[in-house]
Amino acid sequence: xxxxxxxxxxxxxANARFNxxxxxxxxxxQPKPYLRTQTQSWYCSIAGRxxxxxxxxxxxxxxxxxxxxxxxxxxxxxxxxxxxxxxxxDWCETNRRPGTYSLHLRYLKSFIGAVGKxxxxxxxxxxHVTKWHESLGVGTTTQNDAVSVVLRMLNWAEEQDYIDRNxxxxxxxxxxxRRDVFYTPEQWKLIKxxxxxxxxxxxxxxxxxxxxxxxxxxxxxxxxxxxxxxFPADESKGEIEPRVIFLVPxxxxxxxxxxxxxxxxxxxxxxxxxxxxxxxxxCRLTRISTHVGFRVIAYGLRHSWATEALTGGGVxxxxxxxxxxxxxPTMVSRVYSHIAKNPEYxxxxxxxxxxxxxxxxx
Length: 362
Hints:
- By secondary structure, the chain is mainly alpha-helical.
- Among the domains are: 79 residues; 163 residues, Intergrase catalytic core (hpI Integrase, Chain A, Orthogonal Bundle).
- The protein has 17 helices and six strands.
- A hairpin with a 2-residue loop joins β4 and β5.
- The protein starts with a helix and ends with a helix.
- The relative contact order is 0.06.
């Protein structure tokens, strides 16, 4: 009888050990904070990743309970800004133009180099980004571009549920400098005197159409339809709708001539037959600047076209905006506000405003 009792007790203990083993192997353990003696810091493990909770025990347990209560915060703690940047760049390479990808790659590589590969989204503060963009050694316009790339990456990560929220949403970006450089007809003549072929074709086209420099650099014969240049939506700025450039006769003559020489690929090329690059154009214009005594930039020709259209040509701002590829006249009124400082122009506009009334009174 005693022997049976001992056997039954041993069997009960064996069953208990078996059930405990099964439970430990099948049922997942609930994470809880633990202390690492080497660093004297508290951690917890979620999805196989160690998450630091800090050295203060009370604060560590508070953070742990907050993490458990808000499952969305797990994503912020389990990933890093570096990993997000890699996923975003992969998406950008597939869905955006090569130039856009290269730009984002350059800025994000610099950004990650500044904040480190181990920084988590929840750790990122506005002062981290401010310190980074101010250390770039560039103007505020370029700093604005750099911050815009970081914000775009984080907004995308939030949209794709890689993070719960953008930690720097609403950050104020550095102010962009107004690029209201434009040239008078006399200055344009000086520029032309120092523009050698075939570079002069590119400058003439910019001055005659008011198009963006990148549009002139990338236009091909396939984009030509009679007196129009049409970039499909996926090749236009913003990739929302086609970009249409209207060709005046002189601009059309340039395009027709170059299309015969280059039936495929970019039309505007240097003497070696290579398409003009952004840097090559900048170098040529810097050289011209030293000769003419004032700064010459590619966008200055676009601005000159708009200024002349608004003042000398009498074209209304809405038409100018559409001809330049803007979706509304807001950009025109902001960039070309220098026109409002021209008393003679405003005097003429005031006279035109009442010209119809004078005719009616007569």
